[in-house]
Amino acid sequence: MRMFVAVVPPDEVVESLAEFLEPRREAGRDLRWTDPEQWHLTLAFMPDVPDRVLDDLVERLARVSRRHEPVPLRLAGAGAFPNPYASRVLWAGLEHEGDGLRHLARGIRGVCAKAGAAPQGGPFHPHITLARTRRPVEASRWLRVLELYAGPAWVAREVTLIASHLGEGRGNRPRYEAVATLPLGRGERR
Questions:
Q1: DSSP SS3 for 84
Q2: Which helix (H) or strand (E) segment is 144 a member of?
Q3: Position 187 pLDDT exceeds 60
Q4: Is CB count within 10 Å lower at the N or C end of the chain?
Q5: What is the phi-psi region of residue 92: left when phi exceeds 0, alpha when psi lies from -120 to 50, beta otherwise?
Q6: Which CA distances in Å does 35 have to 11, 84, 164, 167?
């Protein structure tokens, strides 16, 4: 099963960014914009989680989540992967203080590997994907626009383990299914 662990922004944060982007989407016809209801900050991506490790994975994620305190965050800044001059992905950045978010991502990735659900990807770079392109594009004008946005601050109080079902969502996009929501710190499990 294809899965990831993420911080999902609260509704007011999603609505603020969606309102900012709405009048600009028409200008980006060459971009495939992501659905706001699917915006998330990926902490660990696991392309193939065997069913037999799922219970252990959730237990390990719960333990590591309890060891990390809630993290204050704010959407601000922007970037492009792999770079602004041959961009395939446009993203919104996240402001955060200290190393709490990086330590959380490192801990999450570590327990995923120990559970037998090896995470994939390069170094952790906190972002929320806003749009993708079929071919590389020069995106510096988009980055200038996106750099103007600074969203409301919030505190991430939980992480969510999400199953990604490719091609089952609207417009042949992935359908996301929350498998477990795990509180950070000493909160209650939901």
A1: coil
A2: helix 140-146
A3: no
A4: C
A5: beta
A6: 13, 22, 14, 14
